[in-house]
Amino acid sequence: MKTTKIQRLLLLTLISLIPFQYFSQTTQEDFTDGYYKLKMNRAVQKVYVDINETGVLSYSVDFTSGTEMIDTTTKKLFPLEAVSVITERPIFRKNSSDFDFMTIPLKLRPAQADVPTQLNTHLNGALYAGYRNDRYGVRYSVDPLLRSQQIVNHFGVSIGFFSGIGGTFISPTTTNFMLDQEYDGVVWCNGIAAFIGINRFTIGLAAGIDHLTDSNRSIWIYQDKPWLGLAFGVNLN
């Protein structure tokens, strides 16, 4: 019991110390150079974005030659600041693959046998691979002098699969009293996860199963049973 309380205290301390900027790396909230789908005035086109000290510069992509060519004659600048009111609200979208390292600090296990629903706090680490969609909305705020200043809002979602290892508390209670000792077992966890990011705040939800790796797997009541968990990740690509 004392060990469990210490683990929970350490977990809460860890979560409080890690800033949201660390979590947000999963959905890549930074607006960077590259190819995007631009939606503006109900029209959608593929563009190449170049971000510099003056603002967001977009070029249309020409397909007439059979290959993708950036048309530098069609540049459109969305400035960081302007002395007049700007009403345009372009939205830049990008799809990409997603490779992350993720942690699952909390797992909610449904009731099994005579054991009620459990909230486990053992840390788990896993590799995540999925599909991501990021959207960057550019808008302008207007001050009392009718000057415009650019604001970029990010919204991203990612869904994929994960596989990794973690720990779990093995005791008489979780083995139908077929084991007398208590120890921290190692589990292999697999499942699916989804992340959502809004500007610099990102959080994920995971669903998976755990497979105890030692000889007590046959008596562990949570062996290959589903659970739900809270997930955080760091982007690797």
Question: Would you write up a description of this structure?
Answer:
Helix content is 8%, strand content 59%. Strand 8 and strand 9 form a beta hairpin. The chain is mainly β and 237 residues long. It has two domains: 183 residues, no CATH class; 49 residues. Strands 6-8-9-10-11-12 form a six-stranded antiparallel beta barrel. The protein is built from two helices and twelve strands, in the order ααββββββββββββ. It is elongated, with a radius of gyration of 24 Å.
In short:
The protein is mainly β. The protein has helices at residues 2-17, 20-23; strands spanning 34-40, 43-52, 55-62, 69-79, 81-82, 91-109, 118-120, 124-142, 148-170, 183-198, 201-212, 226-235.
Biggest sheet statistics: 6 strands, antiparallel, barrel
Cα end-to-end separation: 40 Å
Task: Compute the number of helices.
Answer: 2
Strand content: over 45%
Helix content bin = under 10%
Q: What is the general shape?
A: elongated
Number of strands: 12
Order of helices and strands: HHEEEEEEEEEEEE
Which regions are unreliable across 5 or more consecutive residues at pLDDT < 50? 12-28
Oligomer: single chain
- The Rg value, from CA coordinates, equals 24 Å
Indicate the mean pLDDT: 87
Biggest sheet strand order reads 6-8-9-10-11-12
Q: What's the structural domain tally?
A: 2
Q: Find the structural class using helix and strand composition.
A: mainly beta
